[in-house]
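Budget justification, computational time. The allocation requested in the original proposal was used primarily to generate structure tokens for proteins on the priority list. As evidence of use, we reproduce two of the resulting records. The first is shown immediately below.
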Amino acid sequence: MANSLLEGVFAEVKEPCSLPMLSVDMENKENGSVGVKNSMENGRPPDPADWAVMDVVNYFRTVGFEEQASAFQEQEIDGKSLLLMTRNDVLTGLQLKLGPALKIYEYHVKPLQTKHLKNNSS
């Protein structure tokens, strides 16, 4: 009985969402910010190392973390900083609730770091 109950619970767990594909829009960006928008252009997201603070904020707003995105702005996290963040930085340094912080790190920060390393190691 307990096993079937657990199986039912775990059957409801969804896989993490995939990262949206992004493109760069440099027009009308007087503050030096790289515009981030959903797109399949280039077949991959632009290098997050080039993102300004507002690009990081807009990325997290776009992927559904509207409330938490402001923490990246308050802490002045640009793309280079984002790529250097550890799990502990996200869980404690941004002063976010644990649930969203875990999702932000596991489903977004870590994959962005992995893609950046993969794209820049070859």
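The second record produced under the same allocation is shown here.
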Amino acid sequence: MLFVVLQGNQFGGVLSVETAAKSAHRLTGDGVHHPSVDQGISALLGAAIGVLGAVSTSAVSGWSNRQQIRAQAKVDHAHWRRQARREAYSTFLAPAHEAHNALKYAARALVGDTDTEEADRQLRIAQEEMGALQANWAALAVEGPDSVEQAANGVKTALHSMHTTLLAWRDSAGAADLNVKLVERHAVEVTMVSERISAFAVAARAALDESTFPQGANGPA
């Protein structure tokens, strides 16, 4: 008598064959060992192993496909995150540059032959750009990371200080001693704003690189 038991799992299987020592005798009834019986057993074993191999191959293939789907999802998410951050950073940086330029033009209008009207116009432009800067900061804060948000705060603070100094300079026409102090302060603030805008750009580029090559993904060393 021949008993064949198949047990399988996701990645392979165990095949056990129980056969009595006298199976050939029982099958033939003449006590003579027949090769055809061994061939039958071999055929059964081969078929069973083939089934288990197919099951294992299918399981491994399914696992590989799931891994590929997860990897592609990570790539797609990183791309989406980078685009969102890039837009937030750009919409913050553009008005920062415009406000900085307007404030420098306002200062030029206050030097030498004072052109108060032009100075006021440039100060209004700067104020509008700083308003846009503040509005765009909300999206930037959501996108992060903290390093970029802190750099953005540095830009906002420096621009506000520069704007305040120029307003005081404009209102101090005729006060020579005060003008000198304000001019000196303005010169320092022009440099400070430039440095902080540059620092923001550096932090933004680093964050974009992080979005492109997140931790755990293949990226530059």
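A brief technical remark on that second record: Confidence is low (pLDDT under 50) at residues 1-28, 216-221.
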